[in-house]
Design brief:
The chain is α+β, with helices and mostly antiparallel strands. The protein has a single domain, classed as 3-Layer(aba) Sandwich (NADH Oxidase), CATH 3.40.109.10. It is built from 7 helices and 5 strands. Strands 1, 2, 3, 4 and 5 form a 5-stranded antiparallel sheet that branches. The longest helix has 22 residues. The radius of gyration is 18 Å and the shape is globular.
Length: 198
């Protein structure tokens, strides 16, 4: 098995997170920046943007998310939601992934033939970057799980951290020490997923 496949297998959704990492904030930041720089984007447009939340900012984000979800969640279901969000806050930090929509719009104007595709390609670039960062963290034995509380929290996030208006929030990767491993992963039958022709 190649090292690449092993890395992919190691990247799992870790929900039991703690704040006991051996890596420094600076080391994590440097790793993520390098991965984002090397992640592909259409026309090398580099639309991906990342906001790093550590310490109080990380905890504030999950508190804000809880506040945003409370009025939208049935009262009987909210304790479960609250417990889930608190498990995220127990981690070390959160990465907010954005796409710079000004670049997307400029490309649409510049290359009209592909105008409809640029928003799609932007989403693909974002997804690739998220997966690459997640895998790189896993290689360092840093647990993570990917969340999507946008657009519910977009306005509050933009206000709290002065996010440029053209940045569109796409996902949140919460990370920390691995306090319990991921569960067993199940796979579909290959016959349902793959076709091969000669």
């Amino acid at each position: 098995m190649t090292e690449f496949i092993q890395a992919l297998k190691k990247r799992r959704s870790i929900y039991a997170l703690g704040d006991n990492l051996t890596q420094s904030k600076e080391e994590i930041t440097a790793l993520v920046k390098e991965v984002v720089r090397e992640s592909p984007s259409s026309f090398n447009s580099q639309t991906q943007r990342v906001v790093f939340l550590f310490g109080d900012a990380h905890k504030k984000f999950w508190s804000m998310t809880e506040e945003a979800l409370k009025p939208l969640t049935p009262a009987e279901a909210f304790p479960n939601t609250q417990a889930k969000l608190q498990s995220f806050a127990a981690g070390t930090g959160t990465l907010l992934f954005f796409e710079d929509m000004d670049i997307v719009k400029n490309l649409q104007e510049q290359f009209e033939l592909y105008a409809d595709n640029f928003p799609i390609w932007s989403e693909q670039a974002s997804g690739l970057t998220q997966a690459n960062v997640w895998t790189a963290l896993a290689q360092e034995n840093i647990g993570a799980n990917l969340q999507h509380y946008n657009p519910i929290i977009d306005e509050a996030v933009a206000k709290e951290w002065s996010i440029p208006s053209q940045w569109k929030l796409r996902a949140q990767l919460v990370f920390g020490s691995i306090e319990a491993p991921a569960g067993e992963k199940e796979y579909m039958e290959d016959s349902a997923r793959f076709l091969e022709f000669n």
